[in-house]
Amino acid sequence: MKTVILTLTNPPELMLEGQNITPDNVAGKKAAEIAALDVWEGKQKSALGTYFAVAGDGGATAAETKIILRGDCTRVKRIGQQMTAGEIVIEGNADMYIGGWMKGGKIHVKGNVDSFCGIGMEGGELVIDGNAGHHLGASPRGEWRGMQGGLIRVAGSVGNDTATFINGGTIVIGGDADIHVSTHGEGGTVIIKGNAKGRVGGQMVKGNIYVYGTIENPLPGFQMVGEVEQEVDGETATFTHYIGDLGERHPTAKGKTVYANLYTRN
Amino acid sequence: MSELIIKNGFVVDPLQGIKGDRMDIGVKDGKIVETGTLSNPKTIDAAGMTVMAGGVDVHSHVVGPKVNVGRLFRPEDKLFKSPLKSPTCSRMEMGFSVPSTFKTGYDYARMGYVFVNEAAMPPLHSPHVHEEIRDTPIIDNAAMPVFGNNWFTLEYLKNNEIENNAAYTAWLLRATRGFGIKVVNPGGSEAWGWGLNCVNIHDPVPYFDITPAEIVKGLIETNEHLGLPHSVHLHCNNLGNPGNYVDTLESLKLAEGYAPKNDFGRKQVMHITHLQFHSYGGDSWGNFESKAKDVMDYVNAHDNLTVDMGQVTLDETTTMTADGPFEHHLCSLNHLKWANVDVELETAAGVVPYIYSPKVKVCTIQWAVGLELALFSKDLMRTFITTDHPNAGPFTRYPRVITWLMSRAARDATMKTFKWLDKTIDATSIDGIDRELTLYEIAQMTRAGPAQALGISNTYGGLAPGMDADIAVYALNPENMPSDPAMIEKAFSRCAWLVKDGVVTVRDGEVVAEPAKRTVWVDVKVPENAQVQRDIYEHFLRHYSVKLDNYSLFEEHLHNPRVIEVDATE
Ligand SMILES: [Zn+2]
Ligand SMILES: [Zn+2]
């Protein structure tokens, strides 16, 4: 695997649209060619090299390419958008849409990220050591085909509207989640190891949510059906099991109605 | 103004019966002229290319409130689907199935179209319709107000007061700057206000106690009494359901015994739109099948009818119609988002996204039904290409529809992608049809025919001297048609040249100028009618949420009008 190091030496005045910073776009390119990739500051297009010092060449394919971003990328958006393979390490913070529509590969952010990270995700892994903003792993606005697969792991807390319309994949949140989790979900799993604020699983059809802490305002559309012991994210624990959202339509499989499951840890 | 000569092209103009002769077309002051009258024209070399009149779309949903709801509630229709701003256009473009107004105008122009008839204007919201017409560049627009569920219409027709209904119709056309009489699910959208529908033409409307059959016949009589340029334009009852061809045939029979009365060259008394959605057999989705042959046999035998296809294009699209109950029904089938509105005394509407997938049997049968309608047609001057944009697919797929009609190989290639090919072949006739339409027939279906049916063939749809200089040149040589059907699609997607009102508007598929567009509407003079005046006053006093004085379109909403005047005082 070859490594490309991008160091933000000349920070943008506005947000920088960095959707070209992916192993797919960098693969097969020399440092100078990478520096010539398009980025946008507002509507002004310029070269990546205007803002970043580029060291190292890309690998032959995306899978053989690793990108390391240094410097304060708090205002660099869309890193790793639509990437299919390879690796990105962001050594500090990053802005919105990190790993959006990602299909494969791995992104590791050592700081915090803003909203819309991992939206429309289809595969791969997005690991955030700090906190994430709103709409983590959610569907893009208006879209009913949300997260399809892959893994998002946030060590800290997240904002609201996590995993809207989730269809598959897993989101693990180490801290707390604000309102709206898995709204309209039709598959996938969200694990909240801290507390959830409320509206957890609203209009959910299928899929699983685990909350280890408390839910400040649980929804009336979920009904307790019993207690279960389950292994979740490598540890076994007992959970209270609820099904819902009873106000929503539910499919049948093998003659039985399929509900979404909400588990709270005992 | 400048002069143009379009030289050496193969001219295809069904209105004049010109079938690909090598001719020159002269343009002066925005009109087509005899080439001998030109003094110093600029030359467009059309050698080896096909020259047609600018395209005319008889039925498309491009402006107004429900279109805009589609735009607003489908941001995902723009995501990764919007082009970067063209350097030669003045405005950004967005969206796929419900494009922005700007993209709508540009894309129609790129395909060589110059006139688009907005198929459903809710009268109360006509200001919004006209504001969007103004914002849709290049193409001339007309808009048809909906009458089939209007309280005035229902009351007059129940009492068989054709003259009063005609006076009201004339008033509403003027109030909305409308073009003609649109009828959507007659009675059914009013019934929807009660949570009901009219699923066949004998199903009475709640409270009004009039049947869809009586509404349609009454509106045909009204239309011919007034002598409007266009005929009644009908979206039949029971759209989209297995077995509905029976209801469709009954609806078609309503026109029997009526003859067109107008001064505009129109030959039909009823236009039936998106016929594909109404030509289904079977009694469930399991035994769903095509009845296109039965329906077209009837249409072929009755020359007082015109139809358009409503061709399914196998895309993800956005359905939108004044057929409120249908959209609710559709939403309960696909569980996607649904918008619904009731427009007071006039109409209703719904919007639901829909995916016509080549993996779904019903969708691929629908695809075949649409093509069969055209391929079974014996008169393509009465059978028009539409996708009921965006209901069965976006209008930007017309070039693909043309290609399917012109090429059996193109149809076969698409059918190879079907998951349920054998079942589709069993349920339809498409695999047994070898017919390939000619460029002349395509010109009939996309300009000459629609222009004649709309009653505007003195201005649009042809290339005779005196007509608007709206000319599309396609990079297709009729003497040497490409063997690869994809080249046909490419040529019709991006015309080589479009001249609109004498201005070179598109060149090599790119919009290079944005000449002034027009709003075409119909102003009918009728005798003074005190009763109708009083009825209008009373209804606005008692039932409308707006005052009469605020209802009619204000002059400033009307953009660059072209008025078609009709005198119905005799
Ligand atoms: Zn319709
Ligand atoms: Zn329509």
What does this structure look like?
The complex is a heterodimer of chains A (266) and B (570). Chain A has a domain at 115-265. Chain A has two helices and 21 strands. Chain A has helices at 23-26, 31-35, and strands at 2-8, 16-17, 38-41, 44-47, 52-55, 65-70, 76-77, 87-90, 106-109, 125-128, 151-154, 170-173, 186-192, 196-198, 206-211, 215-217, 223-232, 235-244, 252-253, 256-257, 260-265. In chain A, the strands form four sheets. A 13-stranded mixed β-sheet of chain A has the order 5-1-6-8-9-10-11-12-13-15-21-18-17. A four-stranded mixed β-sheet of chain A has the order 4-3-2-7, with no helix packed on it. Chain B is built from 18 helices and 24 strands. Helix content of chain B is 32%, strand content 22%. The two termini of chain B are 40 Å apart. In chain B, strands 1, 2, 3, 4, 5, 19, 20, 21 and 22 form a nine-stranded mixed β-sheet that branches. Chain B has a five-stranded parallel β-sheet with strand order 9-10-11-14-18. The relative contact order of chain B is 0.17. Classes of the chains: A mainly beta (266), B alpha/beta (570). The structure holds zinc ion (2 copies). One zinc ion binds at residues 59, 61, 119, 273-274, 321, 388, 391 of chain B.
